[in-house]
């Protein structure tokens, strides 16, 4: 069992942790115990509390993040074939940069402090996933020097970067949503400062749930990471 904290830098909504970052805390711990035929599926059970000591317990069968007796998030292994259709076709860096000009979160963001894509979080990743058609988003990302060790980006921040490119394929004006579940696979770690491409794709919806996918590429077009998400429609006022 390990003690972890979600510092304010890593918030999503104003009063809780970013879903991708928190899922990454659980998912990277579980992934270290899995073979290549399995990947972690992490479910967020409540808005992750900020600046509190949380307990992370991991075995080969799963992982649990708790706040005292309250379950915050848990992870279980699933077959890697779950992500077989999660890879999104890459686009050129020029197209990804052009898409950023249409990023809706710059002017109307339900959670502007988001660590991954919030314009008000100057310590965040500052992703700007804009639409490129066919239910897809794209943007660029140059990981900052404090996001890794030995010149490579930590896997935790790859989980985070996989989060919001999927979320912005949703109509967040009419359907504001938070991450409920994230299943991810990290294939490779990029260099600090390397220009990466992040893409999201809309997959469908069912009631309050929306399903999306995302993919990260490095500057050479190599797949870095893939994910599938389940989003839950919420009232933003309840989180902010």
- The SSE string, one letter per element, is EHEEEEHEEEEHHEEEE
Strand order in the sheet with the most strands: 1-3-4-5-2-10-13-12-11-7-6
Strand fraction band? 35-45%
Largest sheet descriptor: 11 strands, antiparallel
Tally of DSSP β-strands? 13
- The best one-word shape is globular
Radius of gyration: 16 Å
The helix count comes to: 4
Through-space gap between termini? 31 Å
**Contiguous runs where pLDDT drops below 50 for at least 5 residues:** none
The residue fraction in helices comes out at: 10-25%
Please state the structural category: mainly beta
Mean pLDDT: 96
Give a structural overview.
By secondary structure, this protein is mainly beta. It is globular, with a radius of gyration of 16 Å. Strands 1-3-4-5-2-10-13-12-11-7-6 form an eleven-stranded antiparallel sheet. The protein has helices spanning 19-31, 93-100, 155-161, 164-167; strands at 2-4, 38-44, 54-59, 62-67, 70-79, 130-133, 136-141, 148-149, 152-153, 177-186, 196-206, 209-217, 223-233. It has four helices and 13 strands.
């Amino acid at each position: 069992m390990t003690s972890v904290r979600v510092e304010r830098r890593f918030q999503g909504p104003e009063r809780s942790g970013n879903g991708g970052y928190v899922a990454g805390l659980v998912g990277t711990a579980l992934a270290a115990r899995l073979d290549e035929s399995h990947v972690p599926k992490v479910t967020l059970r409540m808005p992750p509390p900020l600046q509190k000591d949380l307990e992370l317990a991991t075995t080969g069968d799963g992982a649990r993040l708790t706040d005292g007796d309250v379950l915050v998030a848990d992870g279980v292994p699933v077959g890697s074939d779950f992500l077989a259709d999660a890879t999104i076709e890459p686009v050129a860096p020029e197209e990804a940069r052009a898409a950023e000009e249409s990023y809706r979160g710059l002017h109307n963001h339900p959670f502007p402090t988001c660590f991954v894509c919030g314009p008000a979080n100057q310590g965040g990743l500052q992703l700007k996933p804009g639409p490129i058609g066919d239910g897809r988003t794209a943007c660029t990302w140059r990981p900052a020097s404090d996001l890794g060790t030995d010149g490579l980006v930590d896997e935790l921040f790859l989980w985070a970067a996989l989060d919001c490119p999927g979320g912005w394929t949703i109509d967040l004006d009419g359907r504001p949503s938070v991450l409920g579940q994230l299943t991810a696979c990290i294939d490779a770690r990029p260099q600090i400062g390397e220009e990466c491409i992040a893409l999201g794709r809309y997959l469908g919806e069912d009631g309050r749930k929306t399903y999306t996918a995302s993919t990260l590429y490095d500057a050479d077009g190599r797949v870095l990471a893939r994910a599938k998400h389940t989003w839950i429609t919420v009232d933003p006022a309840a989180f902010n």
